């Protein structure tokens, strides 16, 4: 049943409300055509996506649903004018301003035990009705506007991974879970953060108990854990959170630093042109150097006092003028 707030709302009132959301900003549409465009787009949103497959670390491929220019612009406006006004949980560390993999990993630094859990088919498990009921809530939006917004943000009854609106929506959907689990962990002196579908718990605790607690709450929300990505790590082993080592100090992995160190060595020993010819790099010297410089900057972002890579950055910058 829709909220009584909109009981006496007329059709024209709903249209005025929709106009106030500025969903067509940046599309240069005449004001008379904007509403017709939005309704047409929402009715056929599934036709405005293309599928892209990108490789995953395990050798499999991840499917992304990429909206075309028109739908992407509208979804960006939904994010900008509507979604970001709703706060997400402080335990969610992805897809919000000021957060990063470093921000997510830092709270787990130098902990006795690390538990990593992964939500299976994260975006695909968020349904049309979830978005309709939990994001575009009845007390905030007229019924017709709720329906239109939900259609614009979903693809065949699920949240599409690849749409600009999807990440923030996922954080809003998981907000009750994050707050409940985060507050429960705080009482148990356990540190909890969630970066997209990756949940991390650290401290001195019983990992079986935590996993059962998480699994039970997730099931009530329509999610499940990926058993293949459940990991428990003690301080005796490498503890890694969102790609960063957290055993004693925050650091990128040894393998990552070794690869960058090796690239710089080959450039200095054989020269840039011969090195690129040897590895078959086709995108040009400037592109390669910019990419390498970005990787070094990331290492220094994680650990600004890394003297070895400070020197490599200086050599790369001065010698190649990157």
UniProtKB/TrEMBL annotation:
SUPFAM superfamilies: DNA/RNA polymerases
Name of a matching Pfam family: RVT_1
Keywords: Antiviral defense, Magnesium, Metal-binding, Nucleotidyltransferase, RNA-directed DNA polymerase, Transferase
Gene Ontology MF annotations: metal ion binding; RNA binding; RNA-directed DNA polymerase activity
Family annotation (InterPro entries): DNA/RNA_pol_sf, GrpII_Intron_Splice-Mob/Def, Reverse_transcriptase_msDNA, RT_dom
Documented EC number(s): 2.7.7.49
Limits of the Reverse transcriptase domain: 35-246
Catalytic activity: DNA(n) + a 2'-deoxyribonucleoside 5'-triphosphate = DNA(n+1) + diphosphate
Listed GO biological process terms: defense response to virus
UniProt cross-references to CDD domains, sorted A to Z: RT_Bac_retron_II
Family label: Belongs to the bacterial reverse transcriptase family.
Protein name: RNA-directed DNA polymerase
Lineage, top ranks: Bacteria, Bacillati, Bacillota, Clostridia, Lachnospirales
